[in-house]
Amino acid sequence: MQPLVPAYGAGSLADVTPSLLAALGVPGAVDVLGFAPTPKVCLLLVDGLGWRLLADHAADAPFLSSLAVADRAITCGFPATTATSLASLGTGTPAGEHGFVGFSFAAGDELLNALRWHRHGVAEHVDLRSTLIPEEVQPHPTVWQRAEAAGVAVRLVAPQLHQRSGLTRAVLRGGGFLGTVALGDLVSRAIGAMREPGRVFCYAYHADLDAVGHFYGPGSAPWRRQLRFVDLLAASLAEDMPADSTLVITADHGMVAVGDADKADFDADERLSEDVRLLGGEARVRHVYTRAGATGDVLARWSAVLGDRAWITTRDEAIANGWFGPHVSDRVRERVGDLVVAAKDSLVVVSSRREPHVSDFLGQHGSLTAEEQLVPLLIKGCVTV
User: Fold this and answer.
1) Does residue 257 contact residue 346 with C-beta atoms inside 8 Å?
2) Which of 371, 44, 385 is nearest to 236 (CA)?
3) 73 and 375 Cβ atoms separated by less than 8 Å
4) Under CATH, what is the fold of the domain 260-362?
5) What is the fold, at CATH topology level, of the domain defined by 13-257+369-380?
6) In the predicted model, is pLDDT for residue 69 greater than 90?
7) pTM for the whole thing?
């Protein structure tokens, strides 16, 4: 089994927004995905909608499936997780450049939970926005700022509670934020944005399919019902958008189902925890930060425990293999674990004491399998060239 290394520069999430900027006529933007020119774009990101999951449950999503073309799956990028993928969309660059190398990673002396912007792996909530300034953790201009500078009206339609989050400040800054509380106002706000005069780039985000997948497992009865709601959401957007607009639908990652037998517990197995000073990432992909001089020993012990159920590489090997993109800056390199562990099949490396809630999830993601890496690229209203 070989890792599915993302197709950076040819078909990854990091290529979607720059290609759409080019379709909108933004100077300097390069279209590698072949979008036709358009004055208005709505980009809907459905959290957790993997390409293979959509194919396996096409009957539950007739509208989305009607847009699916066999060769329009793209890779989300590594790790296959929300924080990394949103950063790739928001900056138009892979993790090696934007620096969000996982759900959690070492940033200076802190282990940063990039979704919540707090100290990871501790019981108390420690807000890090004042010490790890989001605009400094991710300093590159966003695609939204580039679009605004070119005269495009940018609207971000996302949950209201995300408006001032560290992640939003880092990778979604630029444009007007339109907060939502449910499906209805997501559609209404997105349609309202698309009806504004001139060129428009609207980004809309839906999170609940991912949440249901984590709690009940991808493909479960609750997940399939949620997929039907997502399908109605997408169809409603397409039905009410202006005639000169384009709807593009994609996702940030897929998901795999896991069970208790798939778990290796970092907190219960001393062979995994010995000589490890920090454990980052998440259950399907781990950044292992080792004590000085112990990387080789930790690699040997993790290999003995996990066997052939994971790809286990050093930092230098993971970077050389292109997992984080064709270029990894010095600023980002130090955030990558001394070891990078990417799970195969349905393995998860949980941390039952540090991460009690997420360790019980029945759906997980993050690694380099096709189930996690492949996401749809669905288009309505614009024919690719």
Assistant:
1) yes
2) 44
3) yes
4) Gyrase A; domain 2 (3.30.1360)
5) Alkaline Phosphatase, subunit A (3.40.720)
6) no
7) 0.97
